[in-house]
Design goal:
The complex is a heterodimer of chains A (344) and B (250). With 344 residues, chain A is an all-alpha fold. Chain A contains 15 helices and two strands. Chain A has helices spanning 30-52, 58-65, 68-99, 104-119, 122-130, 132-135, 154-157, 160-186, 189-197, 202-232, 244-255, 258-287, 299-308, 314-320, 327-340, and strands spanning 138-142, 149-153. A two-stranded antiparallel ribbon of chain A has the order 1-2. In chain A, strand 1 and strand 2 (149-153) form a beta hairpin. In chain A, helix 2 crosses helix 12 (258-287), helix 8 (160-186) crosses helix 10 (202-232) and helix 11 runs antiparallel to helix 12. Chain A is flat, with a radius of gyration of 29 Å. Chain B has helices at 40-47, 79-86, 104-114, 120-133, 149-161, 179-194, 206-212, 230-235, 240-249, and strands spanning 2-11, 14-24, 29-33, 55-60, 63-64, 67-70, 73-76, 89-92, 167-171, 199-202, 215-220, 223-228. Chain B has 250 residues and is an alpha/beta fold. The two termini of chain B are 30 Å apart. Chain B is built from nine helices and twelve strands. Chain B is globular and about 50 Å long. In chain B, the strands form three sheets. Chain B has a six-stranded mixed β-sheet with strand order 8-9-10-3-11-12, sandwiched between helices. Chain B has a four-stranded antiparallel β-sheet with strand order 2-1-4-5, covered by helices on one side. Classes of the chains: A mainly alpha (344), B alpha/beta (250).
């Protein structure tokens, strides 16, 4: 390798005698260590300030962290989040498809829905659904001009929980509709044409070809929305739903341990959002099939690499050991190494 | 198999097809050449209902494309009827357009299973044979991104064949391929032509047009400038525009 002259053909090394892999001293990054120390110091200071604050009773935090009322409030928060998101995603998908429909009536309805529910604050909407009984005291479902009908008292159906679900879910649907629409239009037109050319109907094209590909674009912002919903669900306290913030406030209103209970609630919110972030990662990975040649590392794989193979690249781990690599990936890895072989 | 009479098509003010009249007999291979923007692809897409024509008449296998005629009135076809007609025509695109979230075999059996409601097992077996025939019997479970351009296009041909079409449309099937991969796709197409498939091929491969084509059409500016047996048109073009075009591409 020493004296390569420009313009001269480089003799190809014989197949067996490959030059040994280069062992070079990696570039050192002293400033990273300095930065790490500074950050740690600031972090320690913050911890110290809170730990030593005289009026902050940490035992109260641990006392209430697994308190029964707090625990059931966490469940209510989770239920609100899940149900509101299900409504949001389902209705949002419908609205997105309607907005892209060839039918002008459908398009207008979807446009109006999004305009209305995105244009008013969610807190106002929640308050509205909570008070709907004022304007509609009776709910009647029936077939016009017949005696077939069913009457309900609005206040019995529209419980606080129901009002919260409606308020959060319908509002979310408007945002999800735009997210889904972005996903749908991100799929290349050629995909639709190819599917149509095979004789597939509009519904089949959507369900089998466009939506599965749109998922890759839809999922990250949907994860974002779910995390956001987990926290927005605290607004449901206005409907007197026993969710985390409402219960936390109820307890602290009684015992005046305001900050302690805020910390309890925050710990739960953080824990739940962390779990959601984790789930989102795996969901994204699943829908990346076919769009990337080698799937990205899972957090577990990355952690293992950081702990045990500090200087190896993700590809080396993935290609080699940590995961059952497919034959294609191994071949691709071998090929890549062969091409870039002696020079690296 | 295909008959066009004075077919017109405009996109807004842009008149793309200005009276195309031609006929393709069953088992024939017609090649269409011409500069880009001459309307070749648009014409192909009209045959498959991907575009609606504005004027003239177009028949596939004796049936009007896009309309039903009763007396002297034309009725637009419903979506469902259009889908049924498209299912009988195979189409291969310049950019392959394989479904990236499905494996090669899934791409091939998707339409037979969903559109023709074929039994999945039967479709799979037939799909395997088709992929074998285009030389990809060993890559059934590969995703499109793991295949080369030539392999992808061969899967796309197998996918179209799986619907047992009576007519195959090829829209510049080799234009997006690396030069060394063009041959493998043309070989598959040549095989198809020899088996008697009716084909309309928009192409820039003059060699293919000469050897495989039964007829050659040169289009420019939305009209057919010259048509005839490929050897004749390529060797002795009558029209000045054909000559100018050929001198640039040959």
């Amino acid at each position: 390798m020493a004296d390569l002259t420009v313009g001269q053909p480089v003799p190809a090394p014989a197949a067996r005698e490959r030059p040994e892999a280069i062992r070079a001293i990696p570039v050192r990054h002293p400033w990273r260590w300095v930065a790490a120390v500074v950050v740690l110091a600031i972090f320690a200071a913050v911890v110290y300030i809170f730990a030593s604050a005289p009026d902050l009773k940490w035992p109260v935090v641990s006392q209430y962290l697994f308190n029964d009322r707090i625990m059931s409030a966490v469940l209510v928060t989770l239920a609100l989040t899940v149900i509101a998101m299900l409504i949001g995603v389902g209705l949002g998908l419908l609205m997105a498809i309607m907005r892209l429909s060839v039918n002008p009536v459908m398009r207008s309805v979807a446009w109006f829905y999004i305009w209305f529910f995105r244009g008013t604050p969610v807190l106002v909407q929640l308050w509205f659904w909570f008070n709907i009984a004022i304007v509609l005291p009776k709910l009647t479902i029936g077939i016009p001009f017949t005696s077939i009908q069913w009457v309900g008292i609005t206040n019995q159906i529209d419980t606080p929980f129901m009002a919260a679900i409606l308020g959060l879910g319908l509002n979310e649907a408007a945002y999800m509709a735009e997210i889904v629409r972005a996903g749908l239009i991100s799929v290349e037109m050629g995909q639709t044409e190819a599917a149509q050319a095979l004789g597939m109907t509009r519904t089949q094209v959507m369900r089998r070809v466009v939506i599965p590909q749109a998922m890759r674009v839809i999922i990250p912002p949907t994860g974002n929305e779910t995390i956001s919903m987990l926290k927005t669900s605290s607004l449901a306290y206005i409907c007197t739903v026993g969710e985390l913030f409402f219960i936390e406030k109820e307890i602290s209103d009684a015992n005046f341990r305001i900050v302690e209970l805020l910390i309890v609630a925050s710990i739960w919110y953080l824990l739940l959002t962390s779990i959601l972030t984790f789930g989102q990662y795996y969901l994204e990975r699943y829908f990346a099939r076919g769009s990337v040649r080698a799937l990205p590392e899972t957090p577990v794989q990355r952690l293992r690499r950081l702990l045990f193979h500090f200087h190896t690249t993700p590809e080396e781990i993935l290609g080699a050991s940590e995961r059952k690599a497919t034959a294609e990936e191994i071949l691709a890895n071998v090929e890549r190494r062969r091409r870039s072989g002696p020079l690296r | 198999m295909v008959r066009a009479e004075a077919v017109h098509k405009s996109f807004g003010r842009n008149e793309v097809l200005r009276g195309i009249t031609l006929e393709v007999a069953p088992r024939d291979v017609m090649c269409i050449i011409g500069p880009s923007g001459s309307g070749k692809s648009t014409f192909l897409r009209c045959i498959n209902h991907l575009e609606k024509i504005d004027g003239g008449r177009l028949w596939v296998d004796g049936e009007l494309v896009g309309y039903r005629q009763q007396g002297d009135r034309l009725y637009e076809l419903r979506d469902r009827e259009v889908c049924r007609k498209r299912a009988e025509i195979g189409m291969v695109f310049q950019s392959f357009n394989l479904f990236p979230h499905m494996t090669a075999i899934e791409n091939v059996i998707e339409a037979p299973v969903r559109v023709k409601k074929e039994n999945a097992g039967v479709a799979r077996e037939r799909g395997r044979k088709l992929l074998d025939r285009v030389g990809l019997g060993d890559r059934l479970d590969a995703h499109p991104r793991q295949l080369s351009g030539g392999q992808q296009q061969r899967v796309a041909i197998a996918r179209a064949l799986a619907m047992q079409p009576k007519l195959m449309l090829f829209d510049e099937p080799t234009s997006a391929l690396d030069p060394e991969l063009v041959g493998e796709v043309l070989d598959v197409m040549r095989g198809l032509a020899e088996e008697g498939m009716t084909m309309i091929v928009v192409t820039h491969e003059m060699g293919f047009a000469r050897e495989v084509g039964d007829a050659l059409v040169f289009m420019d500016g939305g009209v057919i400038v010259e048509a005839g047996p490929p050897r004749e048109v390529l060797a002795n073009p009558r029209e000045e525009r054909t000559r100018a075009f050929l001198s640039k591409v040959l």
